Amino acid sequence: MGDARATKRSAVHRVLCCAAAIGFCVAASSASATRFATIGTGGVTGVYYPAGGAIAKMVNKTRDQHGIRVAVESTAGSVFNINAVLSGDLDFGIAQSDRQYQAINGLADWEEKGPQTGLRAVCSLHPEAVTLVAAVDAGIEVLADLRGKRVNIGNPGSGQRGNSIDVLTTAGIDWREDIRAEGLKASECAKMLQDERIDAFFYTVGHPAGAITEATAGRRKIRIVPITAMEPLLERVPYYAETVVPAALYPTAANTEDVPTIGVMTTLVTSADVPTDVVYVLTKALFENLDEFKEQHPAFGGLTPEGMLRGLTAPLHEGARRYYLEAGLIEDEVTE
Fold first, then answer.
1. Is the dihedral of CA 73, 76, 82, 84 positive or negative?
2. What's CA 324's distance to the chain center, in Å?
3. Is the terminal CB of the chain with fewer CB neighbours within 10 Å at N or C?
């Protein structure tokens, strides 16, 4: 009787073990079938982070169809994202159009490394304005007033650092000698300005931007300073264009009229090494849910499929190209 019970228990045990093993294998198989991709964005108070989050959400809601799951990472910005994409640490990155141009041509931060031939373009997103935010009590009304002031030009690895230096240089201001330059992240600037630890900060961003809204909401009155007389810069490089910051977006700032400045485009980049089907799935998810994407932030409101193919200097990734051909957005003769 005891032997029979032991045999029965042994049989049950074998069945349970087999069931557990099968369950483990199924789970392992399911896990291995899911592929992961990461989008590098920017600071959480900027526009890159919600842009990346919205794209990830659109891909992930149909992951049972394609097996790809996208995550978003907050990063130092454009230069970091491009380098991380090229090294394989990120699959996608959001970067300013000027930084894409410089990387593919081996300029600026890539001068020593040379042209980054592995970089690939996916699409353009929203326009970004080079924005100079200053405390009214600092007496900064024009660019020349920055001399001798404490000015944040952007953290290393960010796109706005290069834009800040371009603007200052064009205005005849040496950022190393004529101002007290800081290298803060954009997310730190509003508090630093309100605490009177800086007098002004540059921020290249789509509007409205959380960091600027935060800066205008404090005790210290804030003004957005015009960036004008940039014609030499506009003639020298192809990626800048004149634009404005709408005053209505920041009603508590001192500005009563739209503020003239210059700007670039936001772009989504990847590497030639990222699989074609991964890039195709992400591109298709974004373009086929564009109306939903445009609702995620006011900066996205003017996006059109055709406009999202402008401002790209790196070759199109084959996965993006495949979708654009299917959608009739490009002609067959366009090649990578």
1. negative
2. 22
3. N
- Report the run of H or E that residue 79 belongs to, with start and end: helix 78-87
Asked if the bond preceding 208 is cis, omega within 30° of 0, the reply is yes
- pLDDT 10s digits, 155-186: 998 889 999 999 999 999 999 999 999 999 99
How far is it, in rounded angstroms, from Cα 242 to Cα 57? 33
Question: What average pLDDT does range 105-118 have in this prediction?
Answer: 97
How many angstroms separate the CA atoms of 200 and 190, rounded?
A: 9
| pTM of this structure | 0.82
| pLDDT of 109 higher than 60 | yes
CB 199 within 8 A of CB 150: yes
Q: What tokens were used for 194?
A: 């309100």
Instruction: Please report the domains of the chain, with CATH numbers, ordered by start residue.
Output: 33-125+266-327 (3.40.190.10), 128-264 (3.40.190.10)
Interhelix angle 48-60/276-288, rounded to 10 degrees, is 100
Helix, strand, coil content of the chain in percent (nearest 5): 45, 20, 35
